[in-house]
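Q: What structure does this chain adopt?
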Amino acid sequence: MGRLITIGLLSALAFWAGPSHAADAGFSRFVASLWPEAEAVGVSRETFDRETRVLEPDYGLPDLVLPGRPETGAPRQPEFVRPPADYINEAQIARLAGDGRRLLGAHRAALEGVEARFGVPATMVLAIWGRETDFGRSPERYDGLRVVATQAYVGRRKDQYRREFVLALKLLETGAVTRKAFRASWAGATGLTQFLPSEYFSHGVDFDGDGRIDIWHSVPDALASAAKQLADKGWQPGLRWAWEVRPPARADCTLGVPEMRRTVGAWLDAGYAPVGGRIPTAAERTEAASLLQPEGIYGPSFLTTKNYFVIKEYNFSDLYVLFVGHLADRMLSPQRFATPWSATGQLKTASVEEMQRHLTRLGHYRDKVDGKAGMLTRAALGAYQKSAGLTVDCWPSEAVLGSLRLAR
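A:
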C-alpha cells in the first residue's frame, strides 16, 4: 500500500510539474517569435537576446487566462473589487491633499509651465501622481518586462500586450530606462505617473530640458507627460470634471450612462440639485454632462463632463476618476463629498461576470463581459430590475444575481 501511495504522489507531482515546464517552454517560443516585431521598431538583436535569454513568465499576476491551472489568488485591480467607501478613503484623501498642497509650492515653476502649455490644472496632474504612486513613495514591485511578456502570452488582452512588450524592449534599447529601474504594476504601467510603454512613446515629454524623457526620476517630465496624455485625449481647458448633485425623488438610475447627455442646466432644471458648495456658472450650465451614480441610488451622485471621461481614459474605473478629481479639488478646498459613501459590499469579479452574462442573455447588456460593474453594467442591471418588478437601485448584489439566475 505504501508503495502505491508513493507512486500516486509522484504521479500527482508529475502532473502539476508537467504543465508548468511545458507552458514555460511555450513561453520561450512565444517570446522568440516576437523578434521580427521588435526589430521593426528598432530593437537590436543584442538587446533582444540579452533581455529575453532568461526571461520567465510570472503566473502569479492577476488577469491571466491559465487553462488547467488553479486560481492564483493574486489581487485584482482595487478599483473594481473594493467598495467605494473603502477605495475613496477619507484619511488617504486628506493626507494626499496635504502633500499635494506642499508640492504645489515645491514644483511651482514646473507646474505653472505644464498648465500653460497643456491646459491641464496643476492640481489634476498632482492628483494623478498621488493616486498612482503616492507621490513616488510606492515604487512598483514587478519586473516591467516580465509583466508585459506574461500578459502578452496568457493575459486577457494578449494583442495589446504583444505591442507593449515590443515597445518595452524599445525602452531598454534606447536607454530611456534601465532594466533595474523598469519596475511596473501588475498591468505593466511604469514611472511616477504610471505609463504603459506605448503611452511613453505617444505622450512622453522632456520638460526639464535635459535631452531625455524620464518619467521614473524627473518630476517635471512625469507631470508634463501626464498632462500631455490628458490633452492628447481631449482635455478641455477651463472645464470642471464633475459636480456633485442630489437627485430628485424617484430619480431613474438607469439614466446613468455616458450616452445620456444633457446640458448641466437641463439636469439642474430636472431637479438634480448641486451640493457641496460648487454651483455651475451660466457658462457651465451650457456644457454637456452625464449622470454618474457609482453606488446606484446609494451614495453620492455626479454630473460628469467631457473632462471626466478624459481622465477615465487614463484609468477606466469610475472610482479612480472620482478619487483623482476629488483629490485635485481637495488641494484647494477642504470640502468633502456632501453625500457620504454607503457601506455597500462589492461583488467578486466572477459574480459580476456571471451577472453580465445573464444581463446579456436577457437583452439588457451589450458591452463586454469583464467582471467590472461600471456605468453600463449598473444601468443594465437597473433595466432588468424594472422588467422584473424589483426595487430599482442599479447596484449589483447577491440578491439580484440570484434573481437573474432564475430569469427566463
